[in-house]
Amino acid sequence: MVHSDWQQFITFLDYLLLPFYLAAIFFIAYQYREAKYPPGHPWRGYFMTGLILKISGAIFISLIYRYYYGWGDTALYHWHAKIINSSFDDSMSKWYNLLFRIPEWYDGSYSKYISQMEWYQAPAEYTVCAILAVMMIFTMNTFLPTAVIMAAIAFTGVWALFRTFATKFPKHTQYIAIATLYIPSTIMWGSGIFKDTICMFSLGWLTFGAFRLLINRDFKFKTVAITIIAFFLLATIKLYILIAFIPAIIFWILASYSHKIQSAFMRFFTKLAVFAVCIFGFLYVMQEYSEEFGRYSLDKFAKTSYLISSYIQEQSGDQGSAYDLGISSASPTAMLAKFPAAVNVTLFRPYIWETRKVIQFINAFEATIFMLITLKVIFSLGIVGFWRTIAKDPTLQFCLIFTLIFAFAVGISSGNFGTLSRYRIPCLPFFGLLLVLTYYKHYPAQVKLLSFSFVSRKKVAWLDQGNTLNA
Question: In the predicted model, is pLDDT for residue 294 greater than 70?
Fold first, then answer.
């Protein structure tokens, strides 16, 4: 049931305060850019552009939910955070206890707060509400100022992802920026008050931390700390992202250090053994600890797909956007049989003719672009060339494995194009990176032509001088 107050989650006070928060955010961002990325630095032009897009996405999707849908989970997160902060009227200790979800749901002394929060016993959703509650202390509980602050913080994670790949592939910076900073879905659904925004922040920093720890052996406190925080947030809010990330990073480590094994046969055997261990270990853990994994356990995937699809259609009135992969049962074999279909629906659907609404058309157009680029890369390189290029680079293998595992998990468990458009955004940057890096590593001569067309001479000079881009 929709609470009447939720429909007023954006008020006149939001519009009154928003310009001041925007001014503060851009002032800080400008000072940071001038200090870290002086004129001539190849990353300078992407920083403010990426931040502006991120904040614009947060405002846009907030207004869509307020004036088009009228309400949504974004309003519910805000409502819960307001209730948590209202406990300040009683005492600081009550606020602290509610923030960390310490009281049991039946605790009478907290009933006037807990009784209004249907997500109190949902750890993932409530974690988002708690994070929002802290932010809203500084925004007078307003929605839009909180949304833009959340977008700015989330941008640091997306920027960390950009930095990770731009450092490793400095000659492909502009394409890395397109894949990490400029994908419409990640801008729109990864910028507002959603779980997805926090997950994009966490995934970016987790990737950054993993690469810095494993490649640069950077064990500074801030690197370790942000990696742990990112890991914790993903484990709490969306565990399936970690389930896809961990096998990918294991294979990345293996591929990066397997060259030390002199025997080609032993290298192949080691990779095959690790692959088998990961597959069977994944299946064992998901089955053995199905209760702990809850809806992400294998035996609940099919049921979860149905429940999520039914919930989205019932609550949002998004009829006509459901899809059915034809899963016959919740058994691992039945689901694995739908692997190609699940990956396809995540990366390339909805098709244009499957759209029913304007927002769906935007998602379908984006998916079509991804499909055309994929076909372009595969036909240009050929299947053999495509695979050989990826096989030579552990980082490309990391992107491929994460994309496939994540796309399968999301595609098979969403059941609805509306929710799929949000759930799939963590894999889109990695899929985009896989396509552009594979193509331009196969045709390095074309990069030089494009570099002189799109990159200023100062930026090329930075690359030629071998500058370290770890700032």
Answer: no
Q: Say if CB 164 and CB 208 are below 8 A apart.
A: yes
Q: What is the pLDDT of residue 6?
A: 54
Q: What is the mean pLDDT of residues 174-179?
A: 95
Q: Which of 15, 334, 8 is nearest to 148 (CA)?
A: 15
Look at residue 94 and tell me whether its pLDDT is greater than 70: yes
Residue 146's closest CA among 11, 3, 47, 32? 11
> Any alpha helices (H) in 258-300, and if so which ranges?
264-288, 290-293
Chain centre distance of CA 280? 26
The per-residue pLDDT for range 275-287, each reduced to its tens digit, is 676 666 666 555 5
Q: Look at residue 377 in the predicted model and tell me its pLDDT.
A: 93
* Contact yes or no for 179/403 (Cβ under 8 A): no
Sign of CA dihedral 163, 165, 169, 174: negative
Q: Count the helices and strands in the chain (H runs, E runs).
A: 23, 0
Tokens representing 445 are: 């001569």
| Reduced DSSP (H G I as helix, E B as strand, rest coil) percent helix, strand, coil of the chain, to 5 | 80, 0, 20
Q: Tokens in use for 218?
A: 């950077």
pLDDT value, residue 21: 97
CA–CA separation, 325 and 104 (whole Å): 40
Q: How is 54-114 classified by DSSP, letter by letter?
A: HHHHHHHHHHHIIIIIS--HHHHHHHHHHHHHHGGGT-HHHHHHHHTT-S-TT-GGGHHHH
On whether the CB atoms of residues 318 and 418 are closer than 8 A, the answer is yes
Q: How many CA atoms lie within 13 A of 260 on its CB side?
A: 4
Report the distance separating Cα 34 and Cα 20, nearest Å.
21
| Concatenated DSSP letters of 370-393 | HHHHHHHHHHHHHHHHHHHHHHT-
Buried b (16+ CB within 10 A) or exposed e, 443-455: eeeebeeebeeeb
Q: Which two tokens stand for residue 64?
A: 């869509």
The DSSP line for 5-69 is GGGGSS-HHHHHHHHHHHHHHHHHHHHHHHHHS-TT-TTHHHHHHHHHHHHHHHHHHHHHIIIII
Q: pTM of the prediction?
A: 0.86
Q: What is the pLDDT of residues 363-418, one digit of tens each?
A: 889 999 999 999 999 999 999 999 999 988 999 999 999 999 999 988 887 778 88
